Amino acid sequence: MTRISLFATYLEVTILTTDLHLKSVEELAPLIEHKTLSPVELTKAILNFAEESQPKINSYMAFYHDEALAHAKEAEKEILNGQYRGMYHGIPMALKDNLYFKDKITTMSSKIHKDFVSQYDATVVEKLRDAGVIFTGKLSMHEYAWGITNNNPHYGPVRNPWDLDKIPGGSSGGSGAAVAAGASVASLGTDTAGSIRIPSSACGIVGLKPTHGRVSKYGCYPLAWSLDHIGPMTKTVKDAAGMLEIISGFDHRDPTCVDVATDNYVQQLSGNVKDLVIGVNEDYFFNRVDSDVDRAVRASIQSLVDQGARVEVVKIPSLQYAEWAELITSLSEAAAIHHSDLLKRPQDFGDDIRLLFELGELPSAVDYLQAQQVRRQIKQEFTQIFNQVDVMITPTLPVVASSIGDDFAELNGEKVDLIDNIIRFTGPSNLTGLPALSVPCGFKGNLPIGLQIIGPAFKEGRILNVGYAIEQTNPMKNRKPNIFANI
């Protein structure tokens, strides 16, 4: 087929397909592979929608418009020549702005690093580039990834596509909002206490925090070394599985990276949960939960039971100390990273994170080491639990997204502290390093609810398959954010 006739085919498909920005990677990839959709036309559609939606959701920090189109043309040429690289070849996406791009500004959505230019690509950027991904730009985040609202004092708040007055969650709020709205087909987030899973839950998308050490963090500006993770944020579970195949693997440049074999995660998505044993911890993970969230999560658990799974109630006593251990660890490590700037230019931090960095100077070495002892105990108890059950299922968040600028969340008619509550169920997986997946499981009004699946170390395929089984029940009923009707 000639190039002219191919473009005619592309044009015909593009005219018929006016909602490309709504489609997942698993829907788009076959069209690209079989040459019925051009990476150029797809990239134009995503860029156009991203630029149109920017005044509404404010998800982007920078657009790489011309560069993206040039790379899309290269991808098109490769595919026409039979050099298709796989699921993400020709897929346009933007990444969180704490991941380094060579010769590009990476701001961490901060004032202090507003002109910082890296001399190298992050490992995950290298791997996605090698897979044929087309980068459309960088996405907003809570300043230095140290927050859960994405209310940024320097660049403005990111808005939740389901309700523009609500937060998208953070710190990867730009990634969550962009993927949910269609301004990026998929993305990457980083997660120190829930920063992939929180915005994924709040924005109604899939978010995976892999096992600590599964994905290299080389070229990612740190928040807290021992708690940080990088992982996919996508429209579907299969999209997340495909991206994990690309970004996982050992990297000697990251001292926390673990040399363990990777898997074909997409092939593990059978949806078969017969004889799966689900652990449910009532004392911690279902304690003080919004009633609508509780009902939605339990309904999804029941849907798995209906497919042959069974539930076992488990006890994890040390979880009562998890929030303290997470707080001491993250505060101390983050304060160490930012100590010099806190002394020299404290006025250049946003008020909220400056306070956190100042608090991080207070814990003693004894406090920090005691937190690590608690952390070890929690990890041992989870290891024992996974001798009894295959996965744990919990709400991702005990509440739904709150209003922008509000420091409180509503929990069954009561106003509760937002930060303290929103990281309660995500933080333990950072302390233990265990893989955790958030998948949408329903709504409270027009706001999405997320369900969290936690698994044993390096068993991402298992939790992805459970998430896939839940996804197949269509708990979101094919609903999309209202922003689509307003642009």
TrEMBL record:
<feature type="domain" description="Amidase">
    <location>
        <begin position="41"/>
        <end position="464"/>
    </location>
</feature>
<dbReference type="InterPro" id="IPR036928">
    <property type="entry name" value="AS_sf"/>
</dbReference>
<dbReference type="InterPro" id="IPR000120">
    <property type="entry name" value="Amidase"/>
</dbReference>
<dbReference type="GO" id="GO:0050566">
    <property type="term" value="F:asparaginyl-tRNA synthase (glutamine-hydrolyzing) activity"/>
</dbReference>
<protein>
    <submittedName>
        <fullName>Aspartyl-tRNA(Asn)/glutamyl-tRNA(Gln) amidotransferase subunit A</fullName>
        <ecNumber>6.3.5.6</ecNumber>
        <ecNumber>6.3.5.7</ecNumber>
    </submittedName>
</protein>
<dbReference type="InterPro" id="IPR020556">
    <property type="entry name" value="Amidase_CS"/>
</dbReference>
<dbReference type="InterPro" id="IPR023631">
    <property type="entry name" value="Amidase_dom"/>
</dbReference>
<comment type="similarity">
    <text>Belongs to the amidase family.</text>
</comment>
<dbReference type="Pfam" id="PF01425">
    <property type="entry name" value="Amidase"/>
</dbReference>
<keyword id="KW-0436">Ligase</keyword>
<dbReference type="GO" id="GO:0050567">
    <property type="term" value="F:glutaminyl-tRNA synthase (glutamine-hydrolyzing) activity"/>
</dbReference>
